[in-house]
Amino acid sequence: MSALKSPVPFFDTLEEMPNPFKNPVTDLAHLLSDAPDDALSDYQHASEFIYSYRGSPDTFSTYRREIEHFLHWCWLVAKKSLKQIVREDIEEYVEFTRQPPAQWIGRKNVPRYLDRSGERSPNPEWRPYIGGEGEFVASQAAIQSLFSVLSSFFNFLIQENQLSANPVAQMRQKSKFIRKHQAQNKIRRLSPLQWEFVVDAAENLAREQPQVHERTLFIINALFAMYLRISELVETPRWQPQMGHFQLDQEGNWWFQTVGKGNKEREISVSDAMLESLKRYRKSRELPALPSPGEASPLIHKTRGKGGISSTRQIRGIVQTCFDKAADAMRREGFVEEAERLADATVHWLRHTGISEDVKHRPREHVRDDAGHGSSAITDRYIDVERAERHASARNKRIR
Q1: Domain spans of the chain?
Q2: With respect to CATH, is domain 39-176 assigned 1.10.150.130?
Q3: Separation CA 307–CA 296 (nearest Å)
Q4: Which in 203, 204, 335, 376 has the greatest CB count within 10 A?
């Protein structure tokens, strides 16, 4: 297994993936040289399944990742088509994902495909798994995602009359792969010091290159102050965020309307500080200080061309620039360990950080509704008071 060469990405980005219903795949030679029987049919059905989730960028990315990993294993490791997969194969696959070959593990996220002379070509630096500097470890959340997506996929294949049974549903001992926790996992977020350096980095960039980075500063502020998910900032077939989605009510309060996870619409209360950030951003775009009702200007504009940003990868790149600038500044000022921990941060940490800070002084029900949480129990995960008190009470315990 260790000699396995890393596979190429089987599926392109949401923006570039062709519609498999209108453009059925006819050949797999560009993906692998020795495809098993029925691989073409497997790929076609997998493409249709993934493409069906294009309305939500986050869901699309999750389903694409899980199906792609599974097809890599089926075709390159097990040498089987989907019709040949049984319950025991799923168990073997889960074990494989917990420790994939070193050649399949990258240290950082890179684009899946590159544009070369008008053609989309697989990026030779792309790897299916990301492990950072240390040894790759599949998280419990990753294992749960695997089971959930594959089960949905096999149910889809049953509906398409491709299979007669769901091998994931037939498993009786998923518990040996998924551990139950006494408490919820710790929320991954920025420390107060890291956040200060990140927002300072964004403000410095905005001063140095306002035409480019006033947008950067607004994105950072919106992700933190309104707990937005990255998918709520970009244009998709499901939702196009516009300036007119900032709305004034009869009491003089500003709200931001968005459509989030699960295609759920919600209103987010806009703080005075966030409103000032909006005014600054609009001024940089030569717009009036506040949006007019129904204003159709894109919320996050392209710096080149018209319209709004439609790529979550571009938002990630913008935020990563701030993270990198912040880490450099922290090292210069002697905060080396904090800077190193910042290297693990993702865009979603800004949402977590904003919620975690607000839940300290706002009613949890208010934070719950602004964040779009389905229940207060989810919001409670962001409350560290009991955890901190538990550790404080244990600090002076004696052994002798």
Answers
A1: 39-176, 192-389
A2: yes
A3: 10
A4: 335
pLDDT digits (tens, 9 = 90+) for 5-50: 899 999 999 888 999 999 998 889 888 888 788 899 999 999 999 9
- What are the backbone dihedrals phi and psi of residue 138, each rounded to the nearest 5 degrees, phi first? -75, 125
Tokens 């219903």 sit at which residue?
Answer: 21
For the chain, how far is it from start to end, CA to CA, in angstroms? 51
For 31, residues 6+ apart whose C-beta sits below 8 A from its C-beta are 7, 8, 10, 43
- Whole-angstrom CA distances from 224 to 158, 274, 348 are 42, 10, 9
Q: Please give the backbone phi and psi of residue 215, each rounded to the nearest 5 degrees, phi first.
A: -65, -40
Q: Which residues of the chain have pLDDT under 50?
A: 1-2, 181-183
Sign of CA dihedral 12, 130, 143, 33: positive
Q: Residue 159 has which token pair?
A: 């509906």
User: How much is the pLDDT for 179?
Assistant: 54
Residue type, 244: G
Say whether 192-389 and 39-176 share the same fold.
Answer: no
Look up residue 300 and give its amino acid. I
State the pLDDT at residue 112. Answer: 93
Q: Decide: 183 and 331 in contact? Cβ < 8 Å.
A: no
